[in-house]
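Lab channel / #folding
Pinned by the channel admin:
"Please post every new chain as: sequence first, then the structure tokens as a reply. Keep commentary short and put observations after the output so the thread stays searchable."

First post following the new format, from NK:
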Amino acid sequence: MRTSNNIFKRKHILIYGLGKSGISSLNYLKKRNFIKVYDDNNSVFDKHLVKYQVNKSYINKTNFDYILVSPGIDIKKCKIKIYLKKNIKKIITDFDVFYLENPKNLNITITGTNGKSTSCKLLHDILRKSKKDARLVGNIGNPILNEKNIKKNTIFVIEASSYQIEYSKFFKANYALILNISPDHLERHGNLRKYTKIKLKLFNNKKNNLNFCENNNKYYKYFDNKNIKTIKVNTNLSNQIKKKIKNKYFKSINNQKNLAFIIVLCKKLKLNMKNVFRSVNLFKQLKFRQQIIYNNKKILIINDSKSTSFSSSRYLLESYTNIYWIVGGLPKKNDKFILNKKYFKNISLYIFGKNKNFFKKKFKNKLNYQSNNNLSDTFEQILADIKMKNSNKKSHIIFSPSAASFDQFKNFEHRGTYFNSIIKKNKKKLND
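Reply from TO:
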């Protein structure tokens, strides 16, 4: 990484949390600074990392210049919360380090509750195909401090979660996009207002070239600085634009709304729009995010294992008819099922897993449902019901769990992979 100043040189820095971003922060900072590392879980320290490890007693006696907190750490509930509360002004993130070391590089930062990973990947594809030196970093999986060989014209496409924004002090986005906001991560942030205000921190930059938000957003009222220039994006694509889009992935209403942001941004960047639409039509969706994994004349199957809230499932339910919807998992705090009643008739609901009773209560008097203990039995039941129904209409099986995966799976990828294995197991039945 090209450094532009000496802010992080010969400093005493505590890194809290040894996840992906914590390790990348350690590797980046250790050559020029005095680094110590703390994690609530001692087992993460292998023989190469143990030399940096410190305990709570050491931390309490040491005057650190900075405390770099990893995104997964909730400082209100962690093991050193009292210490962090006393030293709140010293807390920074890897986003802060990145920005202070590279303030002149253009960064386009995208956040939102749903669709930010896909939008970042699409924008990155467009920029690369437009011959730009674009880097895809942040919450999408590549820690921001991992990047090397950075040049003056390097553009960063950054996916920012609320966890990454929450404790950032110095980070500023040149172009900031807030795609959408709905209740999420309330177990950490407390309520929708606090969660929203964290997202809106991206707009607090008077030097921003542009900020983008929905034209009909309801969350802008929480924004303190109304003097910042903001472009309100019309998320309803025109018929003219829709005609240019051949990629079936953008049939979903939610994907169309997020695509509207990317199109407006590309115009502001003065990119060749023919190349933009070519990239859109060639775009390959990310795994387990509204991913079409099977399609014939009778049945279409979507693997949307990334869906961890009702809001993330909503637009799929509004985009298809004759839906067999699979839900289940670890429900999120205060998550609300909001869907216009006109769509109810299109949906047959199938509930799986340990938290069946939660979902039954949630959908009582709204949707007809059936329940099973596991995902495999659920899918087989759907196939049997489709066969018995013998309808001429195409069936759409939508695996969009609307809940976290940690009740039965390691993560959403593990859950999505398992669902794909069920599809593979039932290929013969699907083809009959």
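NK: The domain at 291-431 is CATH 3.90.190.20 (Protein-Tyrosine Phosphatase; Chain A).
TO: also worth noting, Residues 253-268 form the longest helix (16 residues).
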